[in-house]
Amino acid sequence: MDCNGIPNEVLQNEELIKYLEEIAKDTALLHGILMRTKESPNSSEVVSYAPFTLFPSPVPKSFFHQALKVQTHYNRLVDRISQNPHYLEEALASTIKVDDFTKRLFNIYRQVQQEPQSKTIVLGLNRSDYMIDQTADGKTALRQIEINTIAASFGGLSSRTPDVHRHILKVAGRLEDSKLILDNNPAAGLAKGLAKAWELYGSEKAVVMFLVEDVQRNIYDHRYVENELWSRNIPVIRRQFEDVSRRGSLDQNKKLFVDGQEVAIVYFRNGYVPQNYKTEQSWEARLMMERSCAVKCPDISTHLVGTKKVQQELARPGVLESFFLDEPGTVAEIRATFAGLYTLDMGEEGDQTVTMALANPDRYVLKPQREGGGNNIYGDEICRVLERLKNSSERTTYILMDKVQPKPTYNYLLRKDEPLRLKTCLSELGVFGAYVRKGTEMVMNECVGHLLRTKSSEHADGGVAAGVAVLDNPLLV
Ligand code: ADP
Ligand code: MG
């Protein structure tokens, strides 16, 4: 690594690295950077550290601050799109014809649109992800990868990783670097949003329900947010789709009850991929929750705003302007973070996208409407897929995006049972946003923290939960 990060004499000092590895794992455990194991994903009897980098990774100060600053604009943008049925219909029209999952979500959306909503408390907890692009001519720019409007994770664990890296750096003799590690507490900020919405819901006994998966390896990440709520005397329960479908109901005022408890907020940490809906009953449970007057985080429209297709449609000229009339500054700040995004809809424009991708596949990423990592298509595979689909409307399940090419860094990735090796790495910066709207009034709109994830550059795709990226901290340079 160059002078921008941890110097070579540290990175290549085998004895020191071995010593630090041990210190790092113990410190992570002491600070609660925890994850359940693959072998027993639903047990807390034997747990391990969540994967993380040995050292923090360099992130240019200016891009870091740019990403934080634009977050409140993104919060408002997501919220505004979610309230624009005409726009959502239009943006997703081609996708819902061919993508069954998006279609099912959209059907729920249409159904609840037709019902009058009494309480309008909206809670958005999202995470906008970026990479720093370095073009051939040496220019760099912050580029949004995507915005996660449902189940954005690692706000909990990333609240505790700064102390781990500070400690490692001190032991490595890098006291001055350790002072550069920023505090970070997304767990508190996410809980603040949940607490605000809970107060507005206005029933002391009503609970916040975390809707969770049946496999819960990442439970500790949730627990940080959960325990923040309990410390504010806000009761929390954890339930799965199945629980809601078996023991949940709406009363005549559309209040949601599960196991006899009134639910003030449904906080979805599940429900973002088709596999989460194991049975038709899961879909019915989702519909019931959406129809209820409980605050949904996110509600179905906000969930849909997070689709890759909406992201692509937003990049069209004039669209951002239509959401921020008379705010050219806001539009410019958001647009500055966009990478090139291209439609694959049937027609001339989509045909051009196909031609462009086939000519230079290495410049692009082909993305389906899926979340959770591991779904994107790169390089020669793009050609194979597009050759097969180019004359079929099935191509519209994808969008095409410019491939962001960050400058590699060097680091060690600590992961249970994996030997430690110096790796060429790429980092992705996430920024957490929280907002609450009551009727037409935004009562909270904040940037509540960050998340740096780093992966070995041999992997094109994938997040922490997918077993590819690991937790990290920015070392601002
Ligand atoms: P998911 O919803 O699966 O997380 P993402 O859009 O975040 O979808 O893509 C998954 C991963 O693929 C990202 O974390 C990033 O590593 C990589 N990736 C996605 N889009 C791009 C891009 N335009 N350029 C480079 N890498 C990308
Ligand atoms: Mg992602």
Description of the structure:
This protein has 477 residues and is of the alpha+beta class. It has two domains: 8-339 and 404-476, no CATH class; 341-403, Glutathione synthase lid domain (Dna Ligase, domain 1, 2-Layer Sandwich). It has helices spanning 8-11, 14-30, 61-82, 85-98, 100-113, 161-171, 175-178, 186-201, 219-231, 241-247, 280-291, 300-305, 308-314, 319-323, 328-335, 348-359, 379-389, and strands at 34-36, 47-49, 52-53, 57-59, 121-134, 140-148, 207-211, 236-239, 248-250, 256-258, 261-268, 295-297, 341-342, 364-368, 377-378, 398-402, 409-414, 422-438, 441-456, 470-472, 474-476. Strand 9 (248-250) and strand 10 (256-258) form a beta hairpin. Bound molecules: adenosine-5'-diphosphate and magnesium ion. The site of adenosine-5'-diphosphate (ADP) has 20 residues, from strand 5, strand 6, strand 14 and strand 16.
